[in-house]
Amino acid sequence: MAALRRTLHLASLAAGARRAVTGSLAGGCLADRRLWDKLPAQPRQGSAGTFDWFFGYEEAQGLLLPLLQEAPAACPPRVLDVGCGTSSLCTGLYTKCPHPVDVLGVDLSPVAVAHMNSLLEGGQGQTPPCPGHPASRLHFMQANAQNLQPVASSGSFHLVLDKGTWDALARGGLPGAYQLLSECLRVLSPGGTLIQFSDEDPDVRLPCLEQGSQGWTVSVQELGPFGGITYFAYLVQGSN
Predict the structure, then answer these.
(1) What pLDDT score does 59 carry?
(2) Rounded to an integer, what is the distance from CA 170 to the centroid of its chain?
(3) What global pTM score does this model have?
(4) How far apart are CA 63 and CA 56, in angstroms?
């Protein structure tokens, strides 16, 4: 959570007149949708119109692309980003993955979802993103990551991404984070992979994931350091 608090602080400094609003995020419950509704997208260099907690697509692609290459070739692998916010993960996969991919970003904040759909349509003075493969697709929908029933059937995604969403929900108590994990595993295909990106130490996160992912294989990879901070990719994987 140290990096998330640091990012919130930097966003607060950059927001100028909105400093008080962003500052309330750092001290508030990060599971509260109203807080995220108030936070505008802060453009990240090289990722027009998006803003990333921790890091963006460029830093994660070395881990993501090999997993997508391993997907069954019958149809484009489906990727779900839970709590996508205005991150570059979804748009990066869509525009830079050389293989066909079907990406869905979901977020509890209608403001974030509207922002990303606007980018898809070429709004806010941005050029509409072009897919890295003609068969690739990208969608954004408002949804509660703790209850994905309205947007995702069981076993329907090859790859599920969580960049900071567990961290945010855990601030309100571990039961909410475990409910998120349960839903992510429900929508994951038997041979699929859930990746949680976080700066939380493995000594803390791994026992939680092992407890909540019985029957799945849990592992961790170190990422970075990016901006002087070491991050971790927690992988929860099934077997075909």
Answers:
(1) 95
(2) 15
(3) 0.83
(4) 12
What pLDDT does residue 34 have? 59
Q: How far is CA 33 from CA 133, 169, 180, 182, 224, in A?
A: 34, 11, 15, 20, 29
> How many other β-carbons are positioned within 10 Å of the β-carbon of residue 20?
9
Residue 143 identity (one-letter amino acid): A
- Residue 199's nearest CA partner among 174, 236, 224, 171 is 224
Q: How far is CA 52 from the centre of its chain?
A: 9
H/E run at residue 189: strand 188-198
Which of the listed ranges 29-33, 53-57, 136-140 does the model predict with the highest average pLDDT? 136-140
Domains belonging to the chain, first-starting first, are 76-238 (3.40.50.150)
Ordered DSSP codes for 38-66:
T-----BTTBTT---SS--HHHHHHHHHH
- What average pLDDT does this structure show over 69-88? 88
Task: For tokens 């996969």, name the residue.
Answer: 93
